[in-house]
Amino acid sequence: MSVAVRFAPSPTGLLHVGNVRLALVNWLFARKAGGNFLLRLDDTDEERSKPEYAEGIERDLTWLGLTWDRFARESDRYGRYDEVAAALKASGRLYPCYETPEELNLKRASLVSQGRPPIYDRAALRLSDADRARLESEGRTPHWRFKLEHTPVEWTDLVRGPVHFEGSALSDPVLIREDGRPLYTLTSVVDDADLAITHVIRGEDHVANTAVQIQIFQAVGGAVPVFAHLPLLTDATGQGLSKRLGSLSVASLREEEGIEPMALASLLAKLGTSDAIEPRLTLDELVAEFDIAKVSRATPKFDPEELLRLNARILHLLPFERVAGELAALGLDDADAAFWEAVRPNLSRVAEARDWWAVTHAPVAPVADDPAFLAEAAALLPEEPWDLSTWGTWTGAVKARTGRKGKDLFLPLRRALTGRDHGPELKNLLPLIGRTRAQKRLAGETA
Ligand code: GLU
Fold this sequence. Notes:
With about 450 residues, the protein is mainly α.
């Protein structure tokens, strides 16, 4: 049996780091097992689902390199859900209920005030045909609940180990709304069964759903998949990350924070696992290192500062070809490997390359506070062509002539050539600045 997993976001908002971590873990699991990865849009909530969010999900996954082998959209499958619902009604596993939301709230509040769990009391099961006819003649339309078996539900979770629920401790879930629309608890099972999903890997907020859904799998005759429930990411203070937290959306990490896809993937693949977080330049490396058994039950904390540090470490390793597109998008069309290799050790984000481009390719106001020394140095500038050895040759000559060394030698040259006290190694920058500009800057001219 070949492994099949799915990532099933609802297109009701932007993907944030927590959602995309689940996409990544599913994808790594599939690739590791030589199985396949399905992207399924859970878009039956028609009021809240939006095409732009669906597009955003595809854009975010594509940016990360999480390609999908299969694609499904729940809103294409209403006919199939109706068919399954009809069969469940016929077998008595789905039963009509007529309580209004207010009535249900009252029931729940009363149970809670008695210190009892708010489990639906199955009053609707005791209605006679005549009761139902009367309620319907009063204009009520039923919603439909799934009748759980009051037996134990057990599974061996790939993250949580053995899990046990008593059916009697769970509320019969509503699977069909009053307007006839099927709900996620049902649609997800029908899809997982029809699309032969072998492993459901999702957040631990779904553990109780799993107990219910296992019984639904059994009722619809689907093979029950293996489950893995991962602890959800929290922020540094232990608060959950809400889907609406725009700043942690993948889109804002990419577009506003300048995060590289492999920085995010390197972090999210290892967060909450027994592996150390290290920069990885390819998803293949993460596949090779992946093992769901490494996922711990402890709550993983997502720290944006850690992500930015990892981003910097990734940039310091990335070859020019991997950033050429991004540099061109910044308007640095002529940037080449020499420029990239000169500046990347000083970057946390690719966009910061613009600052160094301005130093090598645009006029700079030099800081020239020792004109006599700078003039001596300028006179010793070698003829072009310049390469990575030019800086050493030149400063060797300046040192011999002036007797200066260390900071006294290098800092005035750096300040004159770049206008700044710190930056990439001058060995790398000097050939990019070129002789004409260098000479003018050493003379105190903006060039
Ligand atoms: N659409 C559901 C969610 O986003 C999917 C959960 C699942 O993986 O079954 O929470």
